[in-house]
């Protein structure tokens, strides 16, 4: 797999398990990319939903995509602190077109005080039945929800404020 270059602007595409396009973020600047992680940043980027609806993000964000973990993390930098939106999804891949992953519906929202909330369990159950998620996949995702919660509690990686501050400073200096 080729990795994007630091400074390159890429698109991010999420898909559903059945291969349908779910959502596209038009522009994310690459801050780091290696065989384990792709870190990017964007600010007021256009997002296109599968139904064609378009909207623009409201704040700067640092994006964290792993090539091994079954989740990705969006660190949204707001006036009152850093909020996190974590998508349970396949490990990220990159090709000439975009960074890509499969979105598996479950999300975790993390607030500046480190409290968190698991979201979209009903949507996950519905899609699990409709798209016939294999039991092995269901077990992987449940394991990675717990891994993600451990990262939150231990302030690991993106959940450490220094991580967000350092990468945001680097992004602004580009």
TrEMBL record:
Gene3D superfamilies per record: FomD-like
Coiled coil regions, renumbered to chain: none
GO molecular function list: hydrolase activity; metal ion binding
UniProt keywords, alphabetically: Hydrolase, Magnesium, Metal-binding
Residue span, DUF402 domain: 18-155
InterPro entries (alphabetical): DUF402, FomD-like_sf, Ntdp-like, SA1684
Ranges that cross the membrane: none
Protein name in the entry: DUF402 domain-containing protein
């Amino acid at each position: 797999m080729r990795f994007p270059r630091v400074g390159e602007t890429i698109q991010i595409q999420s898909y559903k398990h059945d291969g349908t396009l779910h959502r596209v973020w038009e522009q994310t600047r690459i801050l780091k990319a290696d065989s384990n992680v792709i870190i990017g940043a964007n600010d007021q980027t256009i997002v296109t939903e599968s139904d064609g609806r378009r909207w623009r993000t409201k704040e700067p964000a640092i994006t964290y995509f792993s090539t091994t973990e079954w989740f990705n993390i969006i660190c949204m930098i707001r006036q009152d602190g850093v909020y996190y939106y974590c998508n349970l999804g396949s490990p990220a891949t990159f090709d000439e077109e975009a960074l890509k992953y499969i979105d598996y519906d479950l999300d975790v929202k993390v607030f500046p005080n480190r409290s968190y909330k698991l979201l979209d369990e009903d949507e996950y159950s519905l899609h699990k039945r409709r798209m016939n998620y294999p039991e092995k996949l269901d077990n992987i995702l449940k394991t990675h929800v717990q891994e993600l919660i451990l990262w939150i509690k231990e302030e690991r990686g993106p959940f450490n404020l220094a991580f967000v501050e350092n990468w945001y400073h680097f992004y602004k200096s580009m």
